[in-house]
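quick one before i forget lol
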Amino acid sequence: MKEENKNYIIKYLKEGRRFDGRKIDEFREVEIEYDISKSAEGSARVKIGGTEVLAGVKMAIESPYPDTPDQGNLMVGAELLPLSNPEFESGPPSIDSIELSRVVDRGIREAKAIDTKKLVIEKGEKVWSIMIDIVPINDEGNLFDAAGLAAIAALKTTKFPEYKDDKIDYKKKTNKNLPLNKVPIPITILKIGEYFIVDPSIEEQKNIDARLTVTTTSDGQLCALQKGGDMPLTSEDIEKMMDLAILKSGNLRKILSGDKK
């Protein structure tokens, strides 16, 4: 059955289209909504077609990591709920949820998106910790891109809570923004047969040969790569996938900046 489904998908790709009517390199409609949570320091909702992901940012004051005493902390967690996809199960983090959180974390961390040195209150003793929680509400494919975009959108809206006399008042937000240096955007490219597609649907994800999530900054700097799928990729494949990812990341940046054209 899987081979039949894959052949059906490839049949459409040979005609330069996909079975949902899109072009090979076409994203579904992308929507971003900011400040969806009053209790979070920053939050956002991202929709890519029928895929919907929420991201929230919480801040706390903690000890720095031993190997980075002069930097604040960053943690990313993802919870895949059964309500978003019947294949997800309740309980401890699954391999898929761990991979999702690590892809988002690595993109933000390796891009040095947050100036973590500005999160230090007392070197080696006290720093701000940034915790990003990602929760898909509906999964119709391409959670990597939706989650990465939602995390960045939430970080853009993040405001420091009031901190006075060694106490945090989470009910009062200041006008101080999180120190963001860069905006990393992940784009996931699938290889099915000899074709490369963006923004995969659930059905397309189930029939891949290989997957590559490419995270880049606005200047085209490569931050992170995440390979998936059973088949290997040639250097030529990777080059083509990276070029396509960089091209498509520009479109998402425009949407993130408020330009929907």
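fyi The chain has a mean pLDDT of 95.
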